[in-house]
From TrEMBL:
Residue ranges of domain Acyl-CoA dehydrogenase/oxidase N-terminal in the record: 14-95
Key word Transferase present: no
Protein name stated in the entry: Acyl-CoA dehydrogenase
Protein keywords: Oxidoreductase
Superkingdom of origin organism: Bacteria
Pfam family, any one: Acyl-CoA_dh_2
InterPro entries: Acyl-CoA_dehydrogenase, Acyl-CoA_DH_C, Acyl-CoA_Oxase/DH_mid-dom_sf, AcylCo_DH-like_C, AcylCoA_DH/ox_N, AcylCoA_DH/ox_N_sf, AcylCoA_DH/oxidase_NM_dom_sf
Residues in Acyl-CoA dehydrogenase C-terminal domain copies: 242-370
Species for this entry: Protofrankia coriariae
Entry keyword Oxidoreductase: yes
Length: 395
């Protein structure tokens, strides 16, 4: 069968993602057992166009808005959480391109479907040398690294073995370093409660030369303008994963209830408890989803019109990270309540609720779902100092 032509529009990518979701659901057991995405599953994702959706039109890419990207991730996560998580991480390649010089980025990414993985927090050691850096370190949580093309890693900068101050007065400067996957060693540590199929292993890089032009900081856009050329752009589509899982869990549970009868012979759908729990979960889902997309659409309207984050009110700016955090925590709450609702029917490993419970608990340990986000948003609202300013687009 002839290969599909690459998708060119957001609508086509979303349609392909929705069509792929049932196939991903069928492979969920295999994905979890492998503790990484099998090769054919990676190709299912690649064929949807998810990895190219952040590339701009002048690159020949579809240039999906953050809202459209989140909808695609939501559709894929409806099929399988680990696949959706890896799609979300791997789709950042086109977003990183804006922080590199255009000729360099086009050389690094000859295909729009290339995949980037890695940990952004600076845990590595980058020694300045002529033309670049010698990078050494060990990083955690390399989601999708087992099928990636490039690995991006945060590192502190040293000169002659001493910490190098940053140009903004930071006592110890740091940068993001991009290294070809073949120069990275994977350490198989990914034995986890949830998101088991994401292959989020530790990895090491040992004395690898990184050219200066293969490094970036989120405070310096090197090519491109507009709503996607912004410092926190890589965080925006993350709530698509928990939203997709919550919707899948609700649909799954409603189908079971609709087909189940109580011991008395009455329909389970007429049970008061079933009705109240389902309605409560639906209410939380609708409100949370609207919060995510509403705050993101407002952000897009301002940035697409040539505005900046400073044109958002403090409430609007804080709503962006808060709605993300709320999506993660609400999805976990919804899945947990549905798990309890179906009782012993939830506990056996073939039950997707068992997997979704573990997946949502694991993903809620990510920084975007942690109290550091609440502190940062609260500080911004009160005129204080955010502990994680990047989540607010502050660099």
């Amino acid at each position: 069968m002839a290969a599909q032509a690459p998708p060119r529009t957001g609508r086509e990518i979303l349609e392909r993602a929705r069509a792929a979701a049932p196939r991903l659901r069928e492979r969920s057991e295999d994905i979890e057992r492998a503790r990484r995405l099998p090769t054919d599953v990676v190709e299912i994702l690649r064929a949807t166009g998810v990895f190219r959706m952040g590339f701009g039109r002048r690159w020949g890419g579809p240039e999906l808005t953050s809202v459209e990207q989140t909808e695609v991730i939501e559709a894929l996560s409806y099929g399988d959480a680990s696949a959706g998580w890896c799609a979300m991480i791997g789709s950042d390649t086109g977003l990183y391109a804006a922080f590199l010089d255009e000729p360099v980025a086009k050389e690094m990414f000859p295909s729009l479907d290339m995949i980037t993985a890695g940990l952004l927090f600076p845990t590595g050691h980058a020694e300045r040398v002529p033309g670049g850096y010698r990078l050494t370190g060990r990083w955690q949580f390399g989601s999708g690294i087992t099928h990636s093309d490039w690995v991006i890693s945060g590192a502190f900068i040293y000169r002659d073995g001493r910490p190098e101050p940053g140009p903004d007065g930071d006592p110890h400067d740091s940068r993001l370093m991009m290294v070809p996957r073949e120069q990275v060693e994977i350490v198989d540590t990914w034995y986890t409660t949830g998101l088991a199929g994401s292959g989020s292993c530790d990895y090491t890089i040992t004395d690898v030369f990184v050219p200066e032009e293969h490094t970036l900081v989120f405070g310096a856009v090197r090519n491109g303008t507009g709503a996607l050329a912004q410092p926190e752009v890589h965080m925006r589509n993350m709530p698509g994963v928990p939203l997709g899982i919550a919707r899948a869990a609700l649909d799954h549970t409603r189908e079971i209830i609709a087909s189940r009868a109580r011991p008395t012979g009455a329909a389970a759908a007429d049970d008061y408890r079933m009705q109240v729990v389902i309605a409560g979960c639906e209410a939380d889902f609708v409100a949370t989803r609207n919060g995510v997309y509403g705050s993101m659409r407002r952000q897009h309207d301002v940035l697409a019109a040539g505005g900046t984050f400073d044109d958002l009110t403090p409430d609007e700016r804080a709503a962006l990270p808060l709605s993300r955090l709320h999506a993660f925590r609400t999805a976990r709450s919804i899945v947990s309540r549905l798990y309890d609702l179906l009782q012993t029917g939830s506990i056996y490993r073939p039950s997707p609720l068992d997997r979704w419970l573990r997946d949502t608990n694991t993903m809620c340990q990510h920084i975007v779902a942690q109290d550091r986000i609440l502190q940062s948003a609260g500080a911004h609202l009160l005129g204080g100092r955010p502990g994680f300013p990047l989540c607010l687009g502050i660099v």
